[in-house]
Amino acid sequence: MRFRVRVPRRVALGAGALTLLAATTAPGVAMATDKGSSSRSASVKPTVVLVHGAWADSSSWSRVMERLRADGYPVRAIANPLQGLASDTAYVSSYLSTIEGPVVLVGHSYGGAVITNSAASDPDVEALVYIAGFIPAKGETVGDLAAQSSPAVPLVSTAVPDGTDVSIAPDHFREVFAGDVDRTTAADLAAVQRPANTRAVTDASVQEAFRTIPSWSLITRQDHAIAPALQRTMSRRAGAHTEEVDASHAVMISHPATVTHIIEDAARHTR
């Protein structure tokens, strides 16, 4: 198989560029077929970039990706590092700079905070889609917002060289994260969940991309990780087009057709 590597826009050659190029081909970044042409026309669909949140990985988007590809959308599911809002924003911003043409940027849960910040650096992002997502205002932390959501998520902490990583206690994972997913699948998700560094909840948000980029928000009414009332408050503040569904936090797994629908609705408004 042959690969063609394009030098990212707005990135100078040098050590930083080499690091970025390595990141774009690193394991963990799921990719669908490219658009084939960088020219903008009415027939070209935007690239959908999916950003997962804490306690998940890019494979959580698999059922949504399948549907988007069937409908002709180029899709990328990026591996969010989960190391802190500032560094995760920089990573996603760098990744976005490698994509030509219009982008619909989608974030689930903590991924919503990441897209709120990273989209501000890329003029090609034409729509934001929040899937049960955090939508912080400038100066807020995810921890500030999570404190308004109840009940508290039972977490397990692990000391690491760069601070503390946290994950959901496995025996509470289905209850908190995937209540409408079958028990076997939920157990598998709990076993492979990716922990998040506590900087993900303590780094303050510095951008409000939703102020200038049209946004959509899917609110999950059976969510025990981010209270539906908080989702509504954040979505209203952001001026997002909202839809609601009776689903758990793991809505992209339990209701992939609904998630696909709101993403494609946003995509149709980019033309």
UniProtKB/TrEMBL annotation:
<dbReference type="GO" id="GO:0016787">
    <property type="term" value="F:hydrolase activity"/>
</dbReference>
<protein>
    <submittedName>
        <fullName>Alpha/beta hydrolase</fullName>
    </submittedName>
</protein>
<dbReference type="InterPro" id="IPR029058">
    <property type="entry name" value="AB_hydrolase_fold"/>
</dbReference>
<feature type="signal peptide">
    <location>
        <begin position="1"/>
        <end position="32"/>
    </location>
</feature>
<keyword id="KW-0378">Hydrolase</keyword>
<dbReference type="InterPro" id="IPR000073">
    <property type="entry name" value="AB_hydrolase_1"/>
</dbReference>
<keyword id="KW-0732">Signal</keyword>
<dbReference type="InterPro" id="IPR052897">
    <property type="entry name" value="Sec-Metab_Biosynth_Hydrolase"/>
</dbReference>
<dbReference type="Pfam" id="PF12697">
    <property type="entry name" value="Abhydrolase_6"/>
</dbReference>
<feature type="domain" description="AB hydrolase-1">
    <location>
        <begin position="48"/>
        <end position="259"/>
    </location>
</feature>
